[in-house]
Design goal:
The chain is an alpha/beta fold. The chain folds into 2 domains: 5-123, Rossmann fold, CATH 3.40.50; 132-238, Winged helix-like DNA-binding domain superfamily/Winged helix DNA-binding domain (Arc Repressor Mutant, subunit A), CATH 1.10.10. Helix content is 44%, strand content 20%. The protein has 9 helices and 12 strands. It has helices at 13-25, 36-46, 62-70, 86-95, 107-129, 160-170, 179-187, 195-209, 235-238, and strands spanning 5-9, 29-33, 50-53, 77-81, 99-102, 134-137, 140-143, 148-151, 154-156, 177-178, 219-222, 226-229. α2 packs parallel to α3 and α6 crosses α8 (195-209).
Length: 239
Amino acid sequence: MNKPSLLIVEDDAAVRNLIASTLKLNDYKFHIAKTGAQALLEAASYLPDIILLDLGLPDMDGVTIIKKVRSWSALPIIVISARSEDKDKIDALDAGADDYITKPFSVEELLARIRVSVRRLQYSQMTMQQENSVFSNGDLKIDYQAGCVYCRQKEIHLTPIEYKLLCLLARNVGKVLTHTYITREIWGNAWESNVASLRVFMATLRKKIEKDAANPEYIQTHIGIGYRMLRIEENEELL
């Protein structure tokens, strides 16, 4: 894909100018919104590839914006916020945000997170065009049509729950999925009684696909929040 376009949603002039300067120096196209209402208008009319969103806007909470955008689009949303509590991160991620950066942040981290979102966009476009429905990530391969998983060229036998977990993570590669989101997707209405079970199944899944379950390369834990499947080439940038 061509260089992606971004929408900066930030009411703080200093932060807004830092982000804008960083994007300009790296040849990204971008628009700017200073309020929630303006952000929703720009998102709908400008149709950016990625949104960089502050949560503390003067007229609207950022979580509300995430929910409204998610009602019509799956475009990546990277939250950039001074709110550092786990609850704030979980609320934003549960609402549909793809990533969360805490202020103050480095421009190197911001650019790395944008590159992750770009690769996720590229992967989504590629998989939509594929007819064989095969997911590949490093030595890991999922054949969705056959319902088979291979790792390091050997077939891996997974339980139905392990397979559903792996597919859920793979279809959201690069995105942090909260415990609540995962358990609701896997167990439906009974999700509350299965939060503890999730950790058990995730541990057994890691033992089957990771070379070293104590130092996983595929499934990253976000303590107190959830899990993310990493693209192998992303590891150096995010860890």
